[in-house]
Design goal:
The chain is an all-alpha fold. 13% of the residues are buried. Helices cover 78% and strands 0% of the residues.
């Protein structure tokens, strides 16, 4: 699990940086507008742009780490799938909602906040679908094993 969390931290920070890089290249190069994914309110919390950017990458990593770490909840068999999802989304939300609002200050940007929230909702939908498919496959395997045992006993 530790390896999975560390990898998720690294992947999230890297792909967050990569996505922001491509967005900035597109907006500046194709659209011709000035753009920075770091809000002025966020930048004001730091003595330099480099420090703000570094912390931003760490925050992307933290979000990914928490998303990965909380996957253990799906291994708790005595909880139902709906309860597992509820716990997963609330716990991960406790991390990403404060980052989005208090750190990145996206509530000050009418266009940005809904897009970011939609991104997290889409992530949650994907997690639900993947989790449901995985659970469904495990149930099929368990039922097949039970059928094999019953047929063997007959």
């Amino acid at each position: 699990m530790l390896k999975r969390c560390v990898n998720s931290f690294i992947y999230s920070a890297f792909f967050g940086m990569l996505a922001n890089f491509f967005i900035e290249c597109f907006v500046r190069g194709v659209v011709g507008a000035t753009y920075s994914h770091l809000t002025p309110e966020y930048l004001a919390m730091f003595p330099s742009y480099g420090m703000a950017y570094g912390v931003d990458l760490l925050l992307y990593g933290l979000i990914g780490l928490v998303f990965s770490a909380m996957l253990f909840i799906y291994e708790v068999d005595r909880l139902g799938f709906v309860l597992q999802n509820l716990i997963y989304y609330i716990t991960t939300g406790v991390v990403w909602i404060p980052i989005v609002t208090f750190m990145w200050q996206l509530q000050n940007y009418a266009k940005a906040l809904p897009c970011v929230i939609m991104g997290f909702v889409i992530t949650d939908i994907i997690m639900t679908i993947v989790g449901y498919q995985t659970t469904k496959q495990q149930i099929v395997k368990v039922n097949a094993a039970l059928d094999a045992i019953q047929n063997h006993e007959k």
